[in-house]
Amino acid sequence: MHQTSLESAAVGLPAAAELDRALRNAAPNEVIATALKVVGRDHLALVSSFGTESAALLKVMADVDPSIPVIFLDTGWLFDETLRYRDTLIATLGLGDVRSIKPLEETLSREDPDRELWFSDPDACCRIRKVEPLARALKPFSAWINGRKRFQGGLRAEIPVVEQDGARLKFNPFANVSREDIEAIYSTANLPPHPLLASGFLSVGCMPCTSRTSPDEDARAGRWRGRPKTECGIHTTKTA
Ligand code: SF4
After folding, report:
1. Assuming Cys at both sites, which of 21, 56, 174, 210 could form a disulfide with 185, CB separation 3.0 to 4.6 Å?
2. Distance, CA of 143 to CA of 35 (rounded, Å)
3. Beta-bridge partner residues of 186
4. How far does residue 217's CA lie from ligand 1's centre (Å)?
5. Atom of ligand 1 nearest to the CA of 209
6. Annotation says 125 is catalytic
7. Above 80 in pLDDT, residue 238?
8. What CATH number does the domain containing 165 carry?
């Protein structure tokens, strides 16, 4: 049978455009609850960096279902503070299935034996440390949830609430939220801040590619500073 425009590439799921129309103005918890209903927990994962804003989405998810699998890409270049924050949030929110995914050792020793790829070719470094591990981790899933927001600007300024990502559905429950909404979730739920926030890191990724931001800068200005790169590739490469 041919796939119609209303069927997702993931067999049996509604089309992304149809879901996006239905959820365009939905609250984040409604988006996650709908994703859970149409996809099922065994086929749905949330991807989190456990960065400075991550606890908000994880809190909304935990209120819907704390057992939804959470994929965390442990690139080998993360701050210890981020690894500790992951463990703090697992305990605080009662997350039941956080999967820390590492790059393959054989790939690292073949393509980045001196750990300098972040400098010589950051796109290749992100590919072996983030994009490929995510594709591997998502294999059992038909859909994934992530925390991008339109207010972050750049390529994120026009993301829909639901989109097609290769064979999978991709849910962006925070597409419509404001920075104030995120702050309100932290404050209402008394969520712990990322340990590096207080020392001026508004957005935290890998150590070599993260710097502090000044008050007049965009939150993501400290990522890949001085380079044209603004995204690691997990949102610009189809996960297939
Ligand atoms: S963010 Fe930097 S260190 Fe991390 S995977 Fe990408 S290039 Fe490598």
Report:
1. 56
2. 8
3. none
4. 21
5. 2
6. no
7. no
8. 3.40.50.620
What letter does residue 210 receive in the DSSP assignment? B
pLDDT digits over 61-96, tens only? 999 999 999 999 999 999 999 999 999 999 999 999
Quote the ligand 1 centre to 125 CA distance (angstroms). Answer: 5
Flag whether the pTM goes above 0.85: yes
**E strand segments, the chain:** 44-47, 70-73, 98-101, 143-145, 162-165, 168-171
Identified catalytic residue from 125, 126, 206, 232: 232
Ligand 1: nearest atom to the Cα of 232: 6
- Is 8 inside a domain boundary? no
What is the extent of the structural domain holding 192? 16-222
Number of structural domains the chain divides into: 1
In a domain, 228, yes or no: no
d(CA 194, CA 188): 16
In a domain, 38, yes or no: yes
